Amino acid sequence: MSAMRQEGALGRTHEGEPGLPRGRSGLPTEAVRAAQRERLLRAVIAAVAQTGFADLTVTDIVRGARVSKAAFYVHFADKEDCFLAATREGGHLMLDRVADAARRLPAGTSADEALRASIAAFLGFLAGEPAFARAFYVDMPAAGPRAVQRIEAALHKFAQLNRAWHERARRDHPAWPAVPDQAYYALAGATAELVRAQVWHDQIQTMPDLEDTLVALHLAVLVARPMDAPGTPRA
Question: What is the number of alpha carbons within 13 Å of residue 192 lying toward its C-beta?
Fold first, then answer.
């Protein structure tokens, strides 16, 4: 099984593959540097998922990327800089997956179905990117103050998504209750903890199994629907 299939596209390494052309290869400098950066971003995710951030070295990263240390320092100041760039890109892709799932919904989709589609897209992304899931949800807290700030920013972004869904849904369901801002953030935190536990117990491939629980949890907090009440069935 290939490294890409095992760890996802964001955790792909190039060990055992040819390095990028050196010297006068005929490729534009910008193209070479873009390829180097992409390789380094993928390699750092794979390396952190394998060894953890604390034990990570620049040598580990460049070995997986098949680029030189000199090339590494053209792009990044240190391993933390590289790791934060990689998790930022992965986080953007994760949010794009959720947004794309929402855009693809047909007109007339119910609020419950829209919520389920977004949660399914989020969990599906993580299941398909296990190296990123481990790096983001397990190793980020050990990567320094800037990484902790990144985690906090991600929680606030998910809280904003919760708020946006709830505000849209209440326009169609005015009887649904208003909730304090802390509720949106609390749901983001609870979701992150459930995902982190799944990652910690090496159950990333079964991440989609959290779908029903997360849908019920969101509806319980935002709609005051009992968690054991029948919800929107899976499509």
Answer: 20
